[in-house]
Design a protein that fits this description.
Length: about 425
């Protein structure tokens, strides 16, 4: 697979030339390098519109199937489209022989280290790791005949780059769905240094992913200004909220003697559990007949358990990871997600279907599906005093809880089903053919 590169000639990265150009600019390299041709094939795309079921290719840079939100989204989309009669293929790195992929990545990793050392005098490990995976993914997929597909739908910026390169001659409609805020988000949380070579490199990937796409399908409107800031245009973005198939259980399971508060989320710093516990400590007098269930696991568990102990919150239970979420939500009166950073959490959508009052934060796309004082209560992130105030309102007033829950459930049933999501995406596909 890598024989074409293994010769005595100097290595030149003849793919993804814009990445090298961006790095050259960062390092002040003015001498052009012979990057060769990106790709050359005979164009075989036919513009004839056929009234037939579509053949769709979904691409991901991560293993599939696997456990995770992105993989669940892909499965939901794939199954929904197939139920409509379309043929759907998913291509992921783990679909290729693991030994070949490992050999390819090792080869490109060492080759790019030497190339960067020679050209820039240093190399960045994250960039080497990423560009090696890009080249390896390309090497594995380059011989697949894209002419057989009507639609290509990349689920991340990396495969949007790879498919954009391979699709130059085929000119199939290429769609891109970002599932996070990409480089901008990593800068926000100090996972990447502003002004660094990493920002330069990964920003170039972001911009090219948008440039390659005929249409962006975004999960919520909060993506729009962020994407427009790096090259997206308004008419090429379509918002399609994530839909789920959630079998809500009968809410008659709720206790009449106590009020149950539930939080379903990974125990991670950005999910804001510590602010919930601080809020609960401020309203201890209102927690006499209240049970607080923390559902999920993660790296923050021990630290959060210690906080609960120190605050003497005896009514808080850590239930760990569970596979009976519908049952737990059917027993719950109030759902709280105190997140400090999110896009569109599935746990909130599940809570909406489960007909309970929702208290959450002004993060990402959450205010697009939860309208404050109508289908839930919204507070600013990392504000335990405001969280405590709103939580007290819900604990004291059952009629408010009922009204908020009914409105949230009605919106979910109308807008957040799998059928609604898949049909909207199908319409977008058809509009591009």
């Amino acid at each position: 697979m890598t024989d074409q590169y293994q010769n005595d000639q100097p290595f030149f990265p003849n793919l993804f030339s814009y990445l090298i150009s961006a790095m050259d600019q960062y390092y002040g390299i003015n001498e052009p390098i012979d990057l060769g041709q990106e790709i050359a094939r005979e164009q075989i795309y036919s513009s004839e519109i056929q009234n037939k079921k579509m053949k769709i290719l979904i691409t991901t840079f991560w293993d599939y199937p696997f456990i995770g939100g992105l993989q669940n989204y892909i499965t939901t989309l794939k199954t929904g489209l197939e139920n409509l009669g379309h043929s759907v293929h998913v291509i992921a790195p783990n679909h290729f022989p693991s030994d070949e992929m490992e050999k390819s990545r090792d080869y490109f990793s060492e080759t790019f280290k030497q190339f960067f050392l020679h050209r820039y005098g240093s190399f960045n490990e994250k960039i080497v790791h990423n560009i090696s995976k890009l080249y390896s993914y390309y090497a594995m997929i380059k011989d697949i005949d894209l002419a057989q597909y009507d639609i290509i739908h990349a689920q991340d910026r990396y495969t949007a780059n790879v498919m954009g390169l391979l699709n130059q001659s085929y000119q199939r409609p290429l769609l891109f769905t970002p599932h996070g805020f990409m480089t901008q988000n990593r800068l926000k949380f100090n996972l990447m240094e502003k002004g660094s070579i990493e920002e330069t490199y990964f920003s170039a990937i972001d911009r090219q992913a948008i440039k390659n796409a005929n249409q962006l399908i975004i999960l919520c409107d909060v993506f729009r200004p962020i994407l427009m800031n790096i090259g997206a245009v308004e008419h090429k973005m379509s918002t399609v909220y994530t839909g789920i198939d959630f079998e809500a259980e009968n809410s008659q399971n709720r206790s009449k003697k106590k009020t149950v508060i539930t939080c379903v989320s990974r125990l991670r710093p950005r999910k804001g559990h510590k602010y919930l516990f601080k809020a609960l400590a401020l309203i201890k007098d209102y927690l006499k007949n209240v049970e607080v269930r923390i559902v999920g696991d993660g790296e923050m568990r021990k630290k959060l358990e210690k906080q609960v102990s120190e605050l003497r919150l005896k009514n808080v239970s850590f239930l760990g990871s569970r596979n009976d979420i519908p049952k737990l939500l059917s027993e719950s009166d109030i759902f709280v997600l105190p997140t400090t950073s999110d896009t569109l959490p599935l746990s909130i959508i599940e809570a909406m279907f489960s007909n309970q009052a929702i208290l959450t934060t002004n993060c990402g796309g959450i205010p697009e599906i939860i309208k404050d004082n109508y289908s839930g209560l919204i507070v600013e992130p990392a504000n335990p005093k405001e969280l405590a105030k709103k939580l007290k309102i819900l604990l004291r007033n059952k009629s408010i809880r009922t009204e908020l829950a009914d409105n949230a459930q009605a919106f979910a049933r109308q807008q957040l089903t799998v059928n609604n999501m898949v049909q909207k995406i199908e319409e977008i596909y058809h509009s591009l053919l």
